[in-house]
Design goal:
Blueprint (H helix, E strand, L loop, with lengths): L4 E5 L6 H17 L5 E5 L2 H11 L4 E5 L16 H6 L4 E4 L2 H6 L4 H14 L2 E6 L3 H5 L3 H13 L10 E5 L13 H19 L1 H6 L2 E4 L4 H8 L6 E4 L6 H9 L2
Parallel strand pairs: 1-2, 1-8, 2-3, 3-4, 4-5, 5-6, 6-7, 7-8
The structure holds 2-phosphoglycolic acid.
């Protein structure tokens, strides 16, 4: 049975002390109350080393929200996958819609980042999703197909067990609008089908596909109940311990 995952994406929120405090409360919660899902905290870079110490020997995993596309060298301001791994983090989010739109990260660069992160030993949470206009004009399947084909389909089959896909309709991110459970299921099933065609049924069946976009305690259970939805990538609600743990409990 494929792995369920709930990952919190803190985005650019919380100064160091606040972040450590939140990590501590989430860590304490899951040490005493193990969850059915793997729980991942994707923090800003500056929190990684400190949060890693807090999560050590516990149940919660750690991830970054981005990484460089080059392994090392003269790239001022960049953070390599090896640096992320060296903090104790095991995951990295790649291709979040905010990276695609505000920082102009295209499929070529995202594929480069993905390949480097995987070869370094990180697991990748690869994001895809359409904007509102693409949903309304009915192009959403093609958009997601293009992101996945160009972002992931040159990854060797043996590395696919380190890939998690997050479907995040951009119109639902931080807007309070959520895809209906049926819309999420329809797209997740479509994505699994793409992987089945490319890599075969076994890899597709084992692929964890997360939903992201205004996931809250009040809607998580219904979305997670869909057969092809294997958990969530949680933004705003991951900044509050009670909301985040309630979403994890909804699995
Ligand atoms: P949101 O963000 O839950 O605040 O909509 C989700 C995400 O961007 O990963």
């Amino acid at each position: 049975m494929r792995k369920k995952i709930v990952a919190g994406n803190w985005k650019m929120n919380m100064e160091l002390a606040e972040g450590l405090k939140l990590a501590e409360s989430v860590d304490t919660y899951f040490r005493s109350k193990p969850s059915k899902a793997e729980v991942v905290l994707c923090t800003p870079y500056i929190h990684l080393a400190g949060v890693s110490q807090i999560l050590k020997d516990g149940k919660v995993c750690l991830g970054a929200q981005n990484c460089a596309s080059e392994p090392s060298g003269a790239f001022t301001g960049e953070i390599s996958p090896a640096m992320i791994l060296s903090t104790g983090a095991g995951y990295v989010i790649i291709g979040h819609s905010e990276r695609r739109s505000y920082y102009h990260e295209d499929n070529t660069i995202l594929n480069r980042k993905t390949r480097l992160a995987l070869s370094t030993g990180l697991k990748v949470i690869f994001c895809c999703g359409e904007v509102l206009g693409e949903r309304e004009s009915g192009k959403y399947f093609d958009v997601v197909k293009n992101q996945i084909e160009n972002g992931l389909f040159n990854i060797p089959a043996e590395e696919m067990n380190s890939v998690v896909v997050a479907y995040e309709p951009v119109w639902a991110i931080g807007t309070g609008l959520t895809a209906t459970p049926e819309q999420a299921q329809e797209m997740h099933q479509y994505i699994r089908g793409l992987f089945s065609e490319k890599y075969g049924k076994e890899i597709a069946d084992n692929l964890t596909i997360l939903y992201g976009g205004s996931c809250k305690p009040s809607n998580a259970a219904e979305i997670f109940s869909k057969p092809d939805v294997d958990g969530g990538l949680i933004g705003g609600a991951a900044l509050k311990k009670d909301d985040f743990t309630a979403i994890v409990e909804a699995i």
